[in-house]
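Input chain follows. Return structure tokens only.
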Amino acid sequence: MQLPPKSLRLFGLSVLTSALALAASTGAIANPPAQTRIPTQIEIAQQQVSVLVAGVFKAAEAPTTGNARIVVEGGQRYLEFDSTFSTTDQALDLHVVLDTDANPPQSYSNLGRFVNLGSLHSTTGSQRYPIPDSVNVSSFKSAVIWCRMANATIGYATLGQ
């Protein structure tokens, strides 16, 4: 087999290099078209939200309103407050806790009776707090807005079916 002249081989190599560069710059090589995938029934079920328990906030030390609920989404449990949630913005160091009693105390002498889900994100509006897998949700009967600094229950929602 006889090879074409050197100039023809270089021309062919140049054309091939230009074609590859053009394809790469348009994303034809680096980003092949995505295939549409239909989610499985398990994936659809994991995306759905199931409500385990819910309750309405009541005032304790300060006016607190709105709704709370514990939900499961994608295998993860969350405590959620709806868009009508509101509590005082005058208290410092507010935390969200789950309490074992439906009517939590005004102040806590036993700090082991609740699970602290963290600092309150905002004194108004929708928010969500992940619940650790180690927490047995059925043991907790209320969601509490607690002022850690003053050890005072600001408001709470009794969680029921």
